[in-house]
From TrEMBL, chain A:
Quaternary assembly: Heterodimer of an alpha and a beta subunit.
MF-aspect GO terms: actin filament binding
UniProt function note: F-actin-capping proteins bind in a Ca(2+)-independent manner to the fast growing ends of actin filaments (barbed end) thereby blocking the exchange of subunits at these ends. Unlike other capping proteins (such as gelsolin and severin), these proteins do not sever actin filaments.
Gene Ontology biological process: actin cytoskeleton organization; barbed-end actin filament capping
Originating organism: Saccharomyces mikatae IFO 1815
Keyword set, alphabetical order: Actin capping, Actin-binding
Top-level taxon in the UniProt lineage: Eukaryota
UniProt-recorded name of the protein: F-actin-capping protein subunit alpha
Pfam families xrefs: F-actin_cap_A (PF01267)
Xref: PROSITE patterns: F_ACTIN_CAPPING_A_1, F_ACTIN_CAPPING_A_2
PANTHER family assigned: F-ACTIN-CAPPING PROTEIN SUBUNIT ALPHA
UniProtKB/TrEMBL annotation, chain B:
Function: F-actin-capping proteins bind in a Ca(2+)-independent manner to the fast growing ends of actin filaments (barbed end) thereby blocking the exchange of subunits at these ends. Unlike other capping proteins (such as gelsolin and severin), these proteins do not sever actin filaments.
Lineage of producing organism: Eukaryota, Fungi, Dikarya, Ascomycota, Saccharomycotina
Organism: Saccharomyces mikatae IFO 1815
Swiss-Prot/TrEMBL GO biological process terms: actin cytoskeleton organization; barbed-end actin filament capping; cell morphogenesis
The name this protein goes by in its record: F-actin-capping protein subunit beta
Keyword annotations from UniProtKB, A to Z: Acetylation, Actin capping, Actin-binding, Cytoplasm, Cytoskeleton
Amino acid sequence: MSSSKFEEVVNKIVSDSPPGELREIYDDLIKITSENSKNTILDAIENYNIQNCIPIDVNGKSIIVSKYNKEGAKFFDPINSVIFSVNHLERKGLDIEPYEFTHPSLEKEQLQDLHDKLQKYLLLNFSGDVSFAVYPILEETNKISIIIVSTKYNPKNFWNGYWRSCYVYDLETKELSGSISTQVHYYEDGNVSFQSGKDISQFDIGDVVSAIKGIETSFEDELDRSFFELNEKQFKALRRRLPVTRSKINWGSAIGSYRLGKNAAEGK
Amino acid sequence: MSDAQFDAALDLLRRLNPTTLQENLNNLIELQPNLAQDLLSSVDVPLSIQKDPADSNREYLCCDYNRDIDSFRSPWSNTYFPELSPNDVQDSPFPSAPLRKLEILTNDSFDVYRDLYYEGGISSVYLWDVNEEDFDGHDFAGVVLFKKNQSDHSNWDSIHVFEVTMSPSSSDVFNYRVTTTIILHLDQTKNNQDSHMMLSGNLTRQTEKDIAVDMSRPLDVIFTSHVSNLGSLIEDIESQMRNLLETVYFEKTRDIFHQTKNTAVASSAEEANKDAHAEVIKGLQSL
């Protein structure tokens, strides 16, 4: 197998992993291949963490890594004023150093204000382990990113849940765009995955936090309706709970009479 | 290949996105080609459909148990399609003549079952001999398959692999051991495709039951007993699995989702706080 094909396969497997189970995926991949593939797998996990905005434990604080707060090989957090490297497998911060926020047009107070409003909203609307971030976007100085991650990992009972919402807000045009992505993995004697998401684009947003609250509350309500609809419509149409006769089948040599009965009813 | 590698591969497939199971299976085999045979024979993937040109193109289901080379044996005409060369067919697995009779009877019965429970879909049963001698009404093994596609958005596959063995303590009692996997996929795209939802995966359960069969009766009566025993057992298993799937898909995953995001609970906590606050105020006023 060529090394580029090998990388492609490892990347695909890692990108298909549920957020709470990367350590196990890493161990399995090492067993299937060998210690030699360690660096390829770790690179894939680094990409995964950045793409999925995975929270990192930085001196006891939970800080999200993303493409927005990446600076070279390090990640910065303007609110906590730190810049750090990451052990992506352990999800821990390393070489933590102080970070001074500088921005051509934004004051730190503006970020802090948004951060505090967001925190209030999250406290009342999220039930998992919540991490969130407000990062300025370096290449586009009029835009900021807002990231919310809520997880509940319960490997002892074979399930893990994950919520991520990620927005970009333009301070000049007042446009809010982004997406919500949620996943549940249930793997007791099986492998069941629930995934849902929504793309968002809204204009003329003055109060970002109340706009996000509106979007996420209606997403949650819509999901509850979808669960109900999928059960009532699609699931029920696949297989009946009992035959039309409302009783279990009379197995044996007379089973053919069901067919005779049906043909007679249909006039065949 | 080592057992540790095989176990690691099964663990991975239990964790990775179940909708891309086939792709992940192929990728694992690319990473470690000597896992191929064991993985292909132990991992259940959604069943594929083939047409039997020898039986008015009637559809049948394909899995590793009715495969030889790249062809699949039809339960209707007992022929492999795409057709194998006469040389290959000589080495292809077929049930012995008496077991083929039982296979026809089992297919007939489960076809009635399919119609009653699925009101559509496809069923196929494949049997194989477990002894050197031809089948005499005693031990045998097989797989019962059902598939129902409602649209591109909902798909059900049932795979029941079973073994029937005479009890060591009594020649009139048989042990029926069934391993069932149901693969269920449901999805929904809404509002001009800006939102989507998917519930997908598989659950596996093992069941076994000892049931009496009167071996003094003629062979065709013994056959009917085996089909009845297997039929009611699989009927019970599917009913239980259907309930389990309903619970896991629509209650369990929803509960877990709400353990990450829950406006109702969080807001009711806020309400409770308000109530508590009101109580305090009342208490103060009554002083």
